[in-house]
UniProtKB/TrEMBL annotation:
Its cofactor is heme c. Keywords: Electron transport, Heme, Iron, Metal-binding, Periplasm, Signal, Transport. Residues 1-26 form the signal peptide. GO terms for molecular function: metal ion binding. It is found in: Periplasm. Residues 33-112 form the Tetrahaem cytochrome domain. The keyword Electron transport applies. One of its GO terms (cellular component) is periplasmic space. This is Tetrahaem cytochrome domain-containing protein. Pfam families: Cytochrom_c3_2.
Length: 118
């Protein structure tokens, strides 16, 4: 009984690492990051087992203030700037911007702002 359990968990470990490798190969980037051939590691600063980090984003996008200013410049018509007019403080970039799947605007769990996160 014990032996077959151990065997079973060994099989599970092999299966899940194969799955991870498969996912890493299948993963696609979108938009400018794809066009600019941004390296995996510039976002995955804590290793490939972990999602991309805000620290990684800011190594290129500088700071929340810089991103906020960019949005103000490019979209002066927005009623609210998603990059800081909120009352949730400085969220992680990746709370809204996803890199391998569609982004979301967490504000709209409660509000109905009509912006879409790229
Ligand atoms: C190695 C540099 C680099 C890193 C790291 C990086 N970006 Fe970018 N990002 C760019 C460049 C370059 C552009 C294109 C800017 C332009 O065209 O003016 C861009 C554009 C964007 C855009 C605009 C939409 C688009 O696809 O054009 C968003 C949103 C964005 N980045 C979010 C992020 C987030 C969130 C992270 C972290 C998960 C991140 N970036 C990490 C370089 C980087
Ligand atoms: C609350 C959700 C949210 C968070 C958190 C967030 N963004 Fe955004 N971001 C948006 C939305 C929505 C837009 C599109 C706004 C518009 O309509 O122009 C956007 C646009 C952008 C753009 C394109 C700006 C332009 O006009 O070219 C960049 C670059 C960007 N975000 C980077 C970041 C980075 C870097 C972080 C973390 C420091 C971050 N964002 C955090 C929602 C968010
Ligand atoms: C611009 C930043 C950025 C780059 C470049 C990037 N990633 Fe990611 N990655 C993320 C973020 C953020 C997540 C969290 C899920 C999401 O946003 O799609 C993630 C999640 C993942 C995941 C977890 C599975 C999933 O889809 O949730 C894998 C695997 C992965 N990335 C592999 C890669 C590989 C391989 C590369 C290089 C070809 C790469 N990533 C390049 C930001 C990035
Ligand atoms: C968990 C729910 C929740 C989330 C998520 C949330 N808000 Fe709010 N927000 C509220 C509530 C409740 C109020 C107060 C409503 C009122 O007084 O009319 C409010 C008020 C505001 C106001 C001032 C009133 C207005 O509507 O003009 C702004 C601006 C605002 N939120 C922006 C944001 C932004 C930007 C985000 C995302 C970064 C966000 N909120 C996320 C619940 C939320």
């Amino acid at each position: 009984m014990k032996k077959s359990l151990r065997l079973l968990s060994a099989v599970a470990v092999i299966a899940s690492s194969a799955l991870l490798a498969f996912n890493a190969n299948a993963v696609q980037l979108r938009g400018s990051h794809k066009e600019n051939h941004v390296a995996c590691k510039s976002c995955h600063t804590q290793g490939m087992q972990h999602a991309g980090t805000t620290e990684g984003c800011l190594s290129c996008h500088q700071s929340y203030d810089a991103v906020r200013a960019l949005t103000e410049k490019n979209h002066p018509d927005l009623e609210v700037n998603p990059h800081m007019d909120g009352h949730l403080g400085e969220l992680d970039c990746t709370d809204c911007h996803h890199m391998h799947k569609a982004s979301e605007v967490v504000c709209n769990e409660c509000h109905q702002f009509d912006f879409v996160a790229p």
